[in-house]
Amino acid sequence: MPANGKIVLITGVTRGLGRAMAEEFIRLGHTVLGCGRSPDEISGLKEKFGSPHDFEGVDVAVDEQVAAWAKRILQSHCAPDLLLNNAGLINRNARLWEIGAREFSDVVDVNLKGVVNVIRHFMPEMLKRGSGVIVNFSSGWGRSTAAEVAPYCATKWAIEGLTLALAQELPPGMAAVPLNPGIINTDMLRSCFGGSASSYPTPQEWAKIAVPFLLKLGPSDNGKPLTVPVRGAND
Ligand SMILES: NC(=O)c1ccc[n+]([C@@H]2O[C@H](COP(=O)([O-])OP(=O)(O)OC[C@H]3O[C@@H](n4cnc5c(N)ncnc54)[C@H](OP(=O)(O)O)[C@@H]3O)[C@@H](O)[C@H]2O)c1
Question: At a CB cut-off of 8 Å and minimum separation 6, what does 163 contact?
Answer without folding.
Answer: 134, 136, 138, 176, 177, 178
